Amino acid sequence: MINMKLVFPHKEHKDFELIGDSFTIGSSDDAVIQIKEAGMSDIHATLLKDGDEFSLKIENPACMASVNGRLVKDSREVRVGDLMIIAQVHCKVESDAAAKIDDNKTRIRMALPKYVLRGVSGVYFGKTFPLRGKTSLGRHSENDIFVNVDGISRKHAVISVLADGLEIEDLDSSNGTFVNGKKIIKQKLEIGDEVKFDNIRFLIQSPG
Hints:
The chain is mainly beta.
């Protein structure tokens, strides 16, 4: 039998074994998968299992959720490996079969990112986001870092990893992007810099 589980890429919550066929997700004590995060309703969504197939159903239109960047208006199919964002929480369905690697094949381990963005204020305090290539940030669920907070633009900023370091660019946001207290349009970043989007603050750090 293939075991299925709900995993959280940012490791802010423990993996959850998906044994059964219906899993309510929300902040209430009555939710099967209890997640107390900003923007999470008492019963925010339900993950439904039918054999090896899944779907994500929201309880009402005010409950924000997406699958691979596509908003869930009522329900949407979920496949193994699809990225779900429920309120502000990133999660995926994974299977033991997908995690197993043939012993005759070379094992490939993803290298640690050179830079990470770590939240130091608000609901993102303590959360860490890897920075690879170009990382977009904003209030739309299609962004790499989905910040569902008033004051953040739908497409707020992008951080690029360059050969000689990092660069951040504001995408004509309403409330601006700040580096070490100074409003910027485009600027190089260094480890230790504080980046602020509206009133949400992050630090540029090395994962080590």
